[in-house]
Design a protein that fits this description.
Blueprint: E1 5-8, E2 11-13, E3 31-37, E4 52-57, E5 65-71, E6 75-85, E7 88-97, H1 99-103, H2 109-114, E8 119-132, E9 135-152, E10 161-179, E11 185-203, E12 206-226, E13 232-249
Parallel strand pairs: 1-4
Antiparallel strand pairs: 1-2, 3-4, 5-6, 6-7, 7-8, 8-9, 9-10, 10-11, 11-12, 12-13
Length: 250
């Protein structure tokens, strides 16, 4: 899993699903396409030996206002958008899970040990600002948070075991997109992100804590043009700088 790359509009994010794989970290109504390349993807993407998941976000609605809300057993979600004229607009979506709050202490200790109840939420927003007929700027924000707990209750302190894990990330990107009359196009995105993972393990009378806080800076550009009916030219660059603060304690 650590060798699979997940990219949203050129921004690399650490995970595709919330804990337990019940929901994706990006609302389905926020997406236009999702492409899965199981392995052996092209040179335009790197830093991974496994698969590639490419997601592109959809454009804001053509109508003035649009939205929907959904309330289910696992979570509640919404999607809303507004048009601003000339192809511009605003789009937002989000989800919050509450299964752990509904069930509370209902599951048995054996069930809690094998199947942790996840707590999660995510939010996405996008603003599209048209410059000319063939140019636009997109500002995108992504946020996701997860928490889960595994426990093995025991009357004896020496046999007690518990694992708590919290994981979150945020991305803020500014993307310039231009299309050309010959069918080619160019894009440039610069983004900054914040990742945080905290884990605590308690086994018997001992405990261990791990905290990883990272700042991610990314820049990606691409230009493509048709050379003939069977040949296309694509050139680009892609780079990421990640600064991490790792702390361990026992």
């Amino acid at each position: 899993p650590e060798e699979t790359r997940v990219v949203v509009d050129g921004m690399e994010i650490p995970v595709l699903y919330h804990v337990g794989a019940l929901r994706s970290v990006v609302h389905g109504g926020f997406l236009r396409t999702l492409i899965l390349v199981p392995g052996g993807y092209g040179a335009e993407y790197g830093r991974g030996l496994g698969g590639l998941v490419r997601m592109t976000t959809r454009a804001p609605p053509v109508e003035r206002y649009q939205g929907e809300a959904d309330v289910g057993v696992l979570d509640a979600s919404f999607e809303a958008g507004a048009a601003m004229g000339d192809g511009g607009g605003v789009l937002a979506a989000g989800r919050i899970g509450y299964l752990d709050r509904i069930l509370g202490g209902a599951p048995s200790s054996d069930a809690r040990r094998l199947f942790p109840l996840p707590r999660y939420h995510d939010f996405q927003s996008k603003v599209v600002l048209p410059l000319r007929d063939d140019e636009k700027i997109e500002v995108t924000f992504l946020n996701s948070s997860d928490a889960s707990s595994l426990s093995n209750p025991s009357a004896s302190p020496s046999s007690f075991a518990r694992q708590d894990r919290n994981q979150s990330f945020s991305r803020l990107g500014v993307r310039y997109v231009r299309t050309f009359a010959d069918g080619g196009g160019a894009s440039l995105i610069s983004f900054v992100g914040w990742d945080q993972t905290q884990r605590q393990e308690v086994a018997g009378l001992g405990s261990a804590n791990e905290s990883i806080a990272s700042t991610v800076l990314g820049l990606r550009g691409e230009y493509g043009a048709p050379l003939s009916s069977r040949l296309n030219l694509v050139v680009g660059f892609d780079g990421i700088v990640q600064l991490a603060d790792v702390q361990h304690s026992k």
